[in-house]
């Protein structure tokens, strides 16, 4: 019985991989990583980069079999591969900034509200971004983030992210 497992492992060819599948996984990881690193939850300095990278890889591996690029779209020239990677980066930046603009607008509204209320002297170093921010703006940002999570906004965002693979393969 022990010889069977070793025969199975020795019979595997580790170097037999499909370049189209590797490119597809790389493109998926590029799009997912840009979006994940720009999310309001993960864009803070409190979460280590290795944790962010691990979450990105796990999410990419979970999404990749269902939303992957077809193997027939494998380009022949390396410049085309670089162009595809650049396209994934631009699309990831667009998706990430769409969510970030919402939270930046709420924080800017909090700054304006704090200025109108006379709280301009109550600024502190935001532990999440490292910038100087008002207490009102930080409070509104945290409340909006908690409301976003409690109303399953992150799940709708993941659905929208998955739909981006269907719209822009």
Characterise the protein shown here.
The chain has six helices and two strands. By secondary structure, it is mainly α. Strands 1-2 form a two-stranded antiparallel ribbon. The radius of gyration is 22 Å and the shape is elongated. The protein starts with a helix and ends with a helix.
Note poorly predicted spans: 1-12
Helix/strand/pairing class, anyone?
Answer: mainly alpha
Number of helices: 6
Choose one word for the global shape.
elongated
Give helix and strand order, one letter per element, not per position: HHHHEEHH
- Report the portion of residues in β strands: under 5%
* Main sheet: strands, sense, barrel: 2 strands, antiparallel
- Determine the mean pLDDT: 76
**Helicity range of the residues?**
over 70%
Cα(first) to Cα(last) distance is 46 Å
- The total strand number stands at 2
What integer value in Å does the Rg equal? 22 Å
Instruction: Write out the strand line-up for the largest beta sheet, numbering strands in chain order.
Output: 1-2
């Amino acid at each position: 019985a022990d010889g069977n497992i070793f025969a199975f492992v020795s019979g595997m060819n580790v170097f037999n991989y499909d370049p189209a599948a590797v490119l597809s996984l790389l493109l998926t990881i590029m799009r997912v990583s840009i979006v994940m690193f720009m999310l309001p939850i993960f864009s803070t300095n409190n979460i280590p980069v290795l944790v962010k990278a691990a979450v990105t890889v796990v999410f990419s591996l979970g999404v990749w079999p269902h939303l992957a690029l077809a193997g027939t779209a494998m380009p022949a020239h390396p410049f085309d591969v670089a162009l595809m990677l650049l396209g994934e980066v631009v699309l990831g930046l667009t998706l990430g900034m769409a969510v970030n603009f919402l939270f930046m607008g709420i924080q800017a509204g909090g700054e304006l509200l704090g200025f109108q209320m006379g709280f301009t002297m109550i600024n502190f170093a935001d532990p999440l971004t490292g910038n100087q921010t008002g207490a009102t703006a930080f409070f509104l940002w945290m409340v909006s983030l908690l409301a976003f999570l409690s109303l399953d906004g992150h799940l709708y965002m993941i659905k929208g992210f998955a739909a981006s693979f269907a719209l822009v393969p």
